[in-house]
Amino acid sequence: MSRLPPRPKLDRHTPLDGRHHEARRRSVRRGQLSVGPIAGVADVIRFPEVAELLDVCWLEITGKLKPAALAPLSGDDVRRLTCLLLSPVAGLQRRDAPAGAGVTPLKPHQSSPTKPPALATAMDVVSSLSSSPAPAPSVLKSVLLSYAYVSVWITFSLSVIMYNKYILDPTMYNWPFPISLTMVHMAFCASLTVVLVRVLRVVAEPTSPPMTPSLYAASVVPIGVLYALSLWFSNSAYIYLSVSFIQMLKALMPVAVYSLAVAFRTDSFRRASMLNMLGISAGVAVAAYGEARFDAFGVTLQLAAVAAEATRLVLIQILLTSKGMSLNPITSLYYIAPCCLVFLTLPCLPTSSPLVVV
């Protein structure tokens, strides 16, 4: 018997054209079908379409072809493939079963209560091919939505920075009272969050643990004081420094947060992280050295704002997160903004005396 040419192998990129059907016809006539462990069904195949279908099934079983890439099977194809797969497998199971293994013969009108493992596997394969795959979530939609949120945040943040610079810069609007500007900001935040939480009930107050006066004084008041100092110093720096240079100095925030976290033992010391922090510090030093409008008092104010903000972030982890209190952005402002407003009011009179006269 002459050797047949090797049968072309199917993969996910191979189209099922006439050459494959012809190769399958020759293989089926000679009884040389070899499709993995289901090669025992070759003697009952008499048409090439099912042979191609078996090849595709085996590619899907071995993980070389995803079901989503296949065209949906018709009901006739599924029933035909079921008969071809199950009949020989069930026969092999009965033939290979040892004698006296406790198998009770069934009467003609009875059905087997349990399926053999190979039979169940074959039925599962056919069921998975005949059922359409569940639709996967749109990754592109999630990415676009995330970029949209980031773009909105950057737009509003940049707008607030430029507006503060316009109000506080001596060459522009020339409003030399940054603390009063911060008070207006905190008063608006406190009023809005009270309406959202108490009136509209957009979010609920945390109940585990409940916010008691003692917990508020021990956990929220220190954070409110540091937040007030951070906003006060940061807005004051706009009077003396340019916006670009202030943003360069704010790059020291990760360095300050990591250093304080290691000092308060909320984070472990890592040499690689410290090397990254030193690189950031070196970059900020180079930017400060080349700044045309360098002002020592303005740099001191901005560094004090960075230190206050870094301490506030570390204390949030120590005073709130460690006690099991989880606050979202609205509830955080709901508790912190009134406290911050009170502590901004205390230094407002001595530092904004011309405002009082007016």
TrEMBL record:
The record lists the organism as Oryza meridionalis
Keyword presence, Ion transport: no
Disordered as annotated region, ranges: 1-29, 96-117
**Does the entry feature the keyword Transmembrane helix, yes or no?**
yes
Q: Where in the cell is it found?
A: Membrane
Q: How does it sit in the membrane?
A: Multi-pass membrane protein
Task: Please report the stretch or stretches of sequence annotated as the Sugar phosphate transporter domain.
Answer: 149-347
Q: Which GO terms describe its cellular component?
A: membrane
Broad class of the protein's primary localization = membrane
InterPro entries named in the record: Sugar_P_trans_dom (IPR004853), TPT_transporter (IPR050186)
Q: What is this protein called?
A: Sugar phosphate transporter domain-containing protein
Report keywords, A-Z.
Answer: Membrane, Transmembrane, Transmembrane helix
Q: Where is the composition biased (Basic and acidic residues)?
A: 8-20
Residue ranges spanning the membrane: these are 144-163, 183-203, 215-233, 239-261, 273-290, 296-320, 332-352
